[in-house]
Write a structure and sequence with these properties.
The protein has a domain of 61 residues. It contains three helices and no strands. The chain is mainly alpha-helical. 69% of the residues lie in helices and 0% in strands. The N and C termini lie far apart (81 Å).
Length: 98
């Protein structure tokens, strides 16, 4: 597949221009996000309950982390189930004497 050096406007360097436009768009998006974050930080700094807000955020993150670890770590077998399995392996399965 041949790639034209024209960008459709009659000027050359279409691929280079595309790359520059794409990069400029990414930079612009990043700057908008940074500005929005700075506005939020300014709003937070003006709050009187900043300490409580930070403590709540810390607790929320710890809770989320605990839930995530509970989901991805294998659950351990209960102690009584492990003893029952070990006993069954040694003595064999229970039989009914009826």
């Amino acid at each position: 597949m041949a790639v034209s050096s024209q960008d459709g406007t009659g000027t050359g360097g279409g691929l280079g221009r595309d790359a520059v436009q794409l990069l400029a768009g990414i930079v612009d998006l990043g700057l908008e996000q940074a500005e929005a974050a700075l506005r939020q930080v300014r709003g937070l700094l003006g709050r009187s309950d900043l300490r409580e807000l930070a403590e709540d955020g810390h607790q929320e993150l710890r809770t989320r982390g605990g839930l995530l670890l509970d989901r991805i770590t294998p659950t351990s077998e209960s102690h009584l189930e492990a003893l029952a399995r070990r006993s069954a392996a040694v003595t064999g399965p229970p039989t009914s004497d009826a």
